[in-house]
Amino acid sequence: MTFFEKVAIAEEKNNSHLCIGLDPRHSQMPQHIQQDENALFDFCTAIVDATKDLASSYKPQIAYFAAEDACDVLKSLITYIHETTEIPVILDAKRGDIESTTERYAVEAFEVYKADAVTANPYLGIDGIAPFTSYSDKGVFVLCKTSNSSAPQLQDCLLQNGHRLYEHVAELASTKWNKSGNVGLVVGATVPEEASAVREIVGQMPLLIPGIGAQGGSLSRIIAAAAGGGILINSARAINYAGSEPDFADRARGAAMTLKNEINETARQKNKDVFVSYR
Ligand SMILES: O=c1ccn([C@@H]2O[C@H](COP(=O)(O)O)[C@@H](O)[C@H]2O)c(=O)[nH]1
Questions:
Q1: The model's pTM
Q2: What was the ipTM of the complex prediction?
Q3: Could you say which of 13, 52, 75, 94 is catalytic?
Q4: CATH code of domain 3-269
Q5: Which of 35, 48, 117, 161 has the most CB atoms less than 10 A away?
Q6: Domain parsing of the chain, residue ranges
Q7: Annotated catalytic, 138?
């Protein structure tokens, strides 16, 4: 089964377009978990256990594990998600390099960590993308228009062909780079106008959308802009740290449930398709 088929099944089963970010930081965890020998693993798996009927995907960001010298925990966490849920895992690694090195990154993401999808940096061109997309059952989300405030420094640059750089990335990623139909794009919830332009270019291609919650993106505006194709709305901190007491997983569940329902209600009001269409 392909990554997008897995997302479509999870979307339908859980009636959800919510991608739950798993970005554990030891110092931010509830006190009682911080003392735990397996703090990162126990924190993340408690959130997974509490939300596995609410998510259409999980997205661990590799930096949060690497920075705590816990790449083995990331591996165990992805194994745990595969063993206890049918929800696909997007490894947010934002990799990309010359082709021979990207091939190693692809092995890292798909064979070492066993992720179902990865985020990739388009800056090196097809050399930084093709080694990922050659795994045709895996998904590749190419960074297109990111949610951070300095993103325009490069992504909005006007090219000789009259397009912005992020529009050019959207064009390439939806055509030449998408031979196996396994490419999606990362577009920030903080930039609804640009998301609308991207949707125009890429048709129904799935968009991974971070920037809701802690980064302040408007759900209503981004759904209006990005609807008309698959959307995976990501939130990490607002769910991970919804509570700081022993009931933190229940609080995370509450935050995830609220966001999931808000996404569905907003999409219903806009009356537009937001399903990943690779069924
Ligand atoms: O444009 C981008 C691309 C990736 N991210 C990542 O998504 C999450 C967002 O976390 P929140 O806590 O919900 O703000 C995080 O892992 C980022 O590295 C992004 O924010 N924007």
A1: 0.98
A2: 0.99
A3: 94
A4: 3.20.20.70
A5: 117
A6: 3-269
A7: no
